[in-house]
Amino acid sequence: MVSLTMPSLDCISFPCGRAAIVSDESIVTHNPETIWPIPESFRSIYAHGVELRSKARLLFLSGQIGVAPDGSLATHFEAQCEVAMTNVETLLTAAAMKQADIVKLVFYLTRAADLPTLGELRRKRWASPTPPAVTTLVVAALARPELLIEIDVTAASAN
């Protein structure tokens, strides 16, 4: 079991031997031993379940795509993903929230070959000791044929 020491976070141990990190906003991750174990490389970007135990403001973002503010769209996955992530961060800021407030992520990709790049970008930009619940789907197409990724986000903040 990995021990994490972070300000304003408490670690709760469960009889099953796994632990959940609880923040000031009372966000608890659930990764019981009775469900498949999360590989080490995914533990900072994935949780089986995320529970919000306090009153909170909720933010539901429409799916964010890789279109830049000037209307441009890159042709390759990494650039589209970076812009989509920046768009999510911009909307979080507009709502006085931050990346740590994300409680649910859904990624829609049109090519399975882009999954490793998605994992790398998520680890680089959105790794967290209390990762959100995550679903990743590879789909036949998105709303426009040139789109390679769409990110759906739910965030919660106690303030």
Report on the architecture of this protein.
The chain is built from 2 helices and 8 strands, in the order βββββαβαββ. With 159 residues, it is α+β, with helices and mostly antiparallel strands. It has 2 domains: 10-52, no CATH class; 57-157, RutC-like (60s Ribosomal Protein L30, Chain: A, 2-Layer Sandwich). It has a 4-stranded mixed beta sheet, with helices on one face. The protein has a two-stranded antiparallel sheet with strand order 1-2. A two-stranded antiparallel ribbon has the order 3-4. A hairpin with a 5-residue loop joins strand 1 and strand 2 (19-22). The longest helix has 18 residues, at 77-94.
Features of the shown structure:
single chain; 159 residues; alpha+beta; 60s Ribosomal Protein L30, Chain: A; 2 domains; four-stranded mixed beta sheet; two-stranded antiparallel sheet; 8 strands; 19% helix; 30% strand; disordered N terminus
Can I get a quick summary?
The chain is an alpha+beta fold and 159 residues long.
